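User: Sequence in, structure out. Go.
Assistant: Echoing your sequence, followed by the structure tokens.
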Amino acid sequence: MQSVIGGLPLETSLRSSFQLLKYFMLLILFDILSGALVSNCISGTKTFVLLRSGWKVWFRKVLLRVLCAVGCAALLLLLPTWLMQPEPETLFAWLLFLLYAASCAAIQTLLIAYTQKESVGLATLLFFQLCSVFLSKQLPGNWKLLLFGNWGCWVRTTSAGEAQGVPLSACIVLNLATLLLIYVFGWRLVRRHHQKR
């Protein structure tokens, strides 16, 4: 799997600096896309919506809009990748990356809705994604799952043949759990924070 949609191997020196740059650009593109959408949705007037429907409906509506946009962007990314490498591994890598991109978008939605600062969401995600790329090699076995940047890298899973990699099933479960927890409980954190202010 040579496409950056599959992520980077644990030994990043095996990839050229151009591939590293392409991977970071991919991550930044999705982070900026979701951050811009969240900021746009949140900056609009929400008083009427909150009075009529409440924090839960408002937060979930923003979250679902962002997830739909990220899904569409990932779908557009798959087509050229699939045409260049029509292999089952490409599809598996794309599905894992889609799930990971959705998790990142949900985390960013929660952070921006909570702090009302776009830079906090973007900076937090980028920091942990950079840590995942360069520090994962130092962690043994499943401890690599502590760095959530590994949750979306197909080539870092044992299913892709990486002996020191993480289980694919664990990556899927962690991404789904993140999405579910933010969807179910995220609005409560945002409401509590804003009511205290």
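User: And one key feature?
Assistant: The chain has a mean pLDDT of 85.
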